[in-house]
Amino acid sequence: MNTAVAIIVYRRENTTMRVFQRIREAKPPRLYVVADGPKSTEEDEACKAVRKIFERKVDWDCQVEKVYSSTNLGLAKRVQTGLDHVFSKEKKAIILEDDTLPDTSFFGFCDELLEKYEDDHRISHISGCNFQPRASNPDHSYCFCSIYSIWGWATWARSWKHFDLEMKDWKNEDKEHFLRHWFLSRRHRKGMRKMFDLHCNNKDPWTWDYQWVYSCLRNGGLSIMPSSNLVSNIGIGPEGTNTYTAKAVKMFPDKLGKVVKPLKHPQIHRDLGFEKRYYSMEKPPILLSLKNYLKNIVRINS
């Protein structure tokens, strides 16, 4: 494995340790630990315990870089500043969070495809989590689509340079054309329109993933989606940065699949058939309603 790994952490020692064990198996040559600071003195010890995992337990030949914040930046700004740092030093990287547990084959999958498509600007993102693997074509190891997952992912510095947390370009976007082109589902178009509107010129954003999706699609980049689910979220609950309704949790994949080498490479084209199957299988929809999303944000900050 030649690719650097960046892990975004905060205060959850148990889930962080589980993710770290998978990173240890992959033995990346460089590891960036992007850690946010505590919100209060009560969180200080928990944040320190998480950081100690990487300071004491890396036992392979690895350059560990501590990208620590002494203050609490919040999820959105911590991800932005942390990955800005990573991609100032790396041409490509694999990104995990403290609750995204990958199958070991995820690392090799990303490593190979980051190399293969490094200079192909038609591709912006490699997803690890496939919410609907049954919709995938078994004849290939992955497909190209406009569906982005950030529960374990990888990208290039050439893509990250377009990222804008405030989404300033959305203001002058031909919104109807953009949404119809990239989102086949009317429900998704409606949900994405609301979230893009909320984050455009927002000086205090609570998330970063909608902005990332927009920046990739605006620049014409597709996402690589594995034919199996390679990452599971193990942090859903009261300690998570985002919380979800019990109904929504049922559609999150809890089983890890695996990719088998050698990878079976498809032709580069947007797989509209996969996207249609993917959307048609949603029970409930992947994008939570705006109402429930905002309710969860209120719960987090209360």
Distinctive features:
302 residues, alpha/beta, Spore Coat Polysaccharide Biosynthesis Protein SpsA, Chain A, 8-stranded mixed beta sheet, two-stranded antiparallel sheet, 11 helices, globular
Short overview:
The chain is α/β, with parallel strands linked by helices and 302 residues long.
Fold topology:
Blueprint lengths: L3 E6 L3 H14 L3 E6 L8 H13 L6 E6 L6 H15 L2 E6 L2 E3 L2 H12 L6 E5 L14 E4 L7 E4 H4 L14 H8 L3 H14 L9 H10 L3 E5 L4 E3 L12 H4 L22 H9 L9 H12 L1
Parallel strand pairs: 1-2, 1-4, 2-3, 6-9
Antiparallel strand pairs: 4-8, 5-10, 6-8, 7-9
Helix pairs in contact: 1-2
Question: Can you put this structure into words, describing what you see?
Answer:
The protein has an eight-stranded mixed β-sheet, sandwiched between helices. A two-stranded antiparallel sheet has the order 5-10. The protein has one domain: Alpha-Beta Complex (Spore Coat Polysaccharide Biosynthesis Protein SpsA, Chain A). It has helices at 13-26, 44-56, 75-89, 105-116, 157-160, 175-182, 186-199, 209-218, 246-249, 272-280, 290-301, and strands spanning 4-9, 30-35, 63-68, 92-97, 100-102, 123-127, 142-145, 153-156, 222-226, 231-233. Helix 1 runs parallel beside helix 2. It is globular and about 50 Å long. The chain has 302 residues and is α/β, with parallel strands linked by helices. Helix 2 (44-56) links the parallel strand 2 (30-35) and strand 3 (63-68). The protein is 38% helix and 16% strand.
